[in-house]
Amino acid sequence: MRVHRLTLFVATLIAIAGSATAGVALGSRSGTSPSPVQLAAGKSATASSFKFDFSVAITGGGSSIPGGKIALGGTGAIDVKNKAADVKLDLGSLAPLLQAATKGAQVPNSIEVVVVNNVVYVNFPALAKQLGKAGKGKEWVKFDISALPKSATGGLNPKAATSVTPKQALSALKSALKVSKVGSDQYGTHYHADFDVASLTTLVPKAQQTTTRASLAKAGLKTIPIDVWVGKAGYLRRFVASIAVKAQKGSPAVKVAITVNLHDYGARVHVSAPPASKTADGSKLLSGLSGLTGG
């Protein structure tokens, strides 16, 4: 599955901006009062935990995506205070496309992923068994995010996710266009905003910013439409975004649609890393990601 690097790059930047700013997700223009969405993001950031469900749809991609669409989704819970998460992921049509990265290990339709302090644990017995003698009796595969190859992140340093300060992220997000109210429905009050994608490049090393802006422009990525819902209790309830990358030489057009529903703020969430006796080191498998995200 040769998904365009820029698509992954932008998605990663959005995730970095959101996690780093916590309470400044959708900023209003400098010198104006905070938008309702910004206020809701601030309140949501004070929660010690929350739960969510999400769906992702990737369309286009030419022959690299059989049938022209990949759909996946899942549910999860995040312990904000302890930087931990537990996600049940339904891989859907993505499962068969991951065989290349797992070197033949049968990919299940659904897996559990646990994240503790930037270390990812995937419940994948077949893959753990494949890791030689070290995999005997193992059920989980451990991946250190800091070891993720840059080829899998469009050149973005994975460690940037923990090094970007709220001040830096806020400065980048202030270029967001004015937030407008759309209406109300079962999720709460609906707001819309468009982000200037180029502004997010300030979150990457200065040496990469010029080339990154040029690549984004070539791919036709100027703004990203984002819709946010604020619930009656004042918390963020729903987030919808779409990313479209134009076709380039050797890379077909790709569209990514993301929907996240947030709920159960402050609920008790307990997340812990699997025991070492059941965990196999998957660092050598990370090199396979470069083949999945090339082009």
List key phrases describing it:
single chain; 295 residues; alpha+beta; outer membrane lipoprotein receptor (LolB), chain A; twelve-stranded mixed β-sheet; 12 strands; disordered N terminus; disordered C terminus
Structure description:
The chain has 295 residues and is α+β, with helices and mostly antiparallel strands. It has a domain at 5-75 and 149-270: outer membrane lipoprotein receptor (LolB), chain A. 21% of the residues lie in helices and 32% in strands. The chain has 7 helices and 12 strands. It has a 12-stranded mixed beta sheet with strand order 7-8-9-10-11-1-2-3-4-5-6-12. A hairpin with a 2-residue loop joins strand 7 and strand 8 (188-196). Helix 1 packs across helix 5. The radius of gyration is 19 Å and the shape is globular. Residues 1-30 and 289-295 have low confidence and may be disordered.
